[in-house]
Amino acid sequence: MVEGRGAKMMFSSAIAHQPLALVNARLVGASSLSAEWRRGRGGVLIVDGLIRDAGPGVAQANLPSHARILDCGGDVVSPGLIDMRAFVGEPGAEHRETIASATAAAAAGGVTTILARPDTFPPVDEASVVDFLLRRARDTGRVRVAPSAALTQGLRGEEIAEIGLLQQAGALAFSDGAHSIRNARVLRRAMSYARDFDALVIHYAEDRDLAGEGVMNEGEFATRLGLSGVPREAEAIVLDRDVRLAALTGARYHAALVTTSLSLEIIARAKAAGLPVTCAVSINHLTLNESDIGDYRTFLKLSPPLRREDERRELVAALASGLIDVIVSDHNPQDVETKRLPFAEAEDGAIGLETMLSAGLRLVSSGELTLDRLIEAMTLRPAEILRLPQGRLDVGAPADLIRFDPEEPYVVDPAKLHSRCKNTPFDEARMEGRVKLTLVGGEIVYEGE
Asked: Where does the record place the Amidohydrolase domain (predicted)?
């Protein structure tokens, strides 16, 4: 047993091969059986790292005598969360985050799979870097880490990366991270190339020229603070171009982040036309707005910037309806030296792996979202888009599971977070929903105190 801060890691092969049952739980997840038992209590039986059974029949009286039994006391048991946008620091930015620290934070927050951004130092544009990430994740990671690789060499937006070789090395998707590709011809070629390999293209939509030196959402609030703004159109113009290229090439396209009603209109048209287009929203844009910046709070300086409250509500409604597919943490650790600066000079970004679930539960508590839909957007939909077997409570699926009490209150203490950086937008916020147990492949990788 290896102990971490507020967690326990277990690697005993005897425990791994012993059947494990989580009983007396409220099961929430995208199982084909869910309609039969979602209103009551049930359990999950895990054998050899896979879900052997799930539902009301998994109870202590029906289990084999040698099974290890954990009584969940009515807590929620769901698939582990899958985060499609997180910066893990390696290689080259270990002062901000490492795979060890990022996956420790993920395990504590109920995230069992991370899609790592490719904009590292060097970027993930060669097969050797993909191999490095996979080996580091295997050796130091607590949860699954899937690399995404660069769409263009050096993330420069000029020459297409070797998508075929990178995919063969283990890259799960292709993106230039926080870099938006200016040249439509380059992006068209990249998407055509990706289509030939049935690879997923993830693109961050922003017209950098139109965004200019903007540091927050353009509007009255930015004017009152004396800060330059980023217009909503900077996102929408590029997203509209991207969707048209998806129609032209037939590539699978995923918008890394959508934050405005203009973008929602574009996504709605694309889906109505039957295009292979999906999108994500960050937990920050779902639960915060530009007013939360208050007195120049740099931990809330994000890219894209936080929008108005009416935009936030439209994002939540789009998520509830299924127009928005996925919720991401947009985990982007920044150290003190780059955040404790005047707002306009501070780096963009906030950490989010450890608080994504709790922040999302705010929407459930307010009645804006159902718990089933919240969990689906953090588990099944990203699994479907990335074509992963986890993210569901189906028999035969990997036993990547979490147990949490959606109503247990706590206050976010940055000092207790596992990330190397502490730039959380929820500093000292009152939250509900503590993760008590995280399993990856049937092994306990986090157990709350």
From this structure: 366-446
What is the C-alpha to C-alpha distance for residues 421 and 415, in angstroms, rounded to an integer? Answer: 9
Whether pTM exceeds 0.90: yes
Percent of the chain topping pLDDT 90: 90
Q: Which of 335, 354, 386 is the last residue of a domain?
A: 386
CA dihedral 367, 370, 375, 377 (to 10 degrees): -90
| 355 and 247 in a common domain | yes
Task: Read off the pLDDT of residues 362-374 as tens digits, 9 standing for 90 and up.
Answer: 999 999 999 999 9
Q: Which of 83, 119, 330, 405 is catalytic?
A: 330
Ranges of beta strands (E only) in 256-344 are 277-282, 326-328
Q: What is the distance between the alpha carbons of residues 421 and 350, in angstroms, rounded to a whole number? A: 9
List the CATH number of the domain containing 371: 3.20.20.140
Is 330 annotated as catalytic?
A: yes
CATH number for position 50? 2.30.40.10
297 and 436 part of one domain = no
Crossing angle for the helix pair 356-365 and 371-378, to the nearest 10 degrees: 150
Domain residue limits at 8: 2-78+398-405+428-447
